[in-house]
Amino acid sequence: MEELANKARTDFLPPLALFGLPSDGSEQEWSDGVLISFMGRTIPLLQDMRNFLNRVEEVTCNLVHQLASLYNKASPLYNAWKDVRLGRVYRCAADLFHALIAIDCTME
């Protein structure tokens, strides 16, 4: 999950934050041809981000299923795991969710 959070912060957040800004920093109007070209160059990034979000969903569902099976009282592993603290797991999940929220806020 740490790798996913780092990937979100390094590969997706910076390009999305700069999306639509001219490279020279001026406040110019965009022509239709420039906008179409710009969107064409952005589509691979959006596709990579969609694949990334699918992966995050898979990892998150897997984490929830594993935690649910460990902490299920009917599970044979319950007694062995009931007193184990998984702070690092929860911190990593929170870090990943924080990165996803940052991407979501940037896209608004």
Describe the secondary-structure layout.
Layout: H1 2-17, H2 32-70, H3 78-81, H4 87-107
Number of helices: 4
Beta-strand content bin: under 5%
* N to C succession of SSEs: HHHH
Mind telling me the C-alpha Rg? 20 Å
Low-confidence stretches: none
Largest sheet, described in full? none
Domain unit count: 1
Shape verdict? elongated
Q: Termini distance?
A: 24 Å
Number of strands: 0
Please identify the structural class as seen in this structure. mainly alpha
Give the proportion of residues in helices.
over 70%
Roughly what is the average pLDDT, rounded to an integer?
Answer: 86
Structure write-up:
The protein has four helices and no strands. Helix content is 74%, strand content 0%. With 108 residues, the protein is mostly helical. Helix 1 (2-17) runs antiparallel to helix 2 and helix 1 runs parallel beside helix 4. The protein is elongated, with a radius of gyration of 20 Å. It starts with a helix and ends with a helix.
Keywords:
single chain; 108 residues; mainly alpha; 4 helices; 0% strand; elongated
Task: Sum this structure up briefly.
The protein has one domain (2-21, 30-107).
